[in-house]
Design brief:
The chain is mostly helical. The protein has four helices and no strands. Keywords: Activator, DNA-binding, Nucleus, Transcription, Transcription regulation.
Amino acid sequence: RGSSRDARRALALALPIGPEAIVNLPVEDFNALLGRARLSGPEVALARDIRRRGKNKVAAQKCRRRKLEAIARLQAELGRLGKERERLLRVRGQAERALGALRRDLARVSAQVLGALRDGAGNPLPPESFGLRLAPGGD
């Protein structure tokens, strides 16, 4: 029960080469071996079937391995991006707090400046009638 179906079939038809060698031989060597061995039609068909199934099995294993490697790479990238997102959220929070502090400072300074406005007689002017504006040059 330990041998594969292909190995049992190769043994039953007395193929001169085992299934593993059939699969692993370069195509030129495989074709040369088939020519030298003087195999019957069913034997050649079996050898080709064994080779096709074996190559397909190897290709499927490689495909599964590449898929697992791609999943691992994507999971690592997801972890890295999650950390980057957390860092950016912290930076954004700090920037929002700094902006809030600047707005409070601006409101305080504006209230001081506008509260200090006087008319010609020294009477305070209503602050709601005025506003501060920053010119493009910072003047």
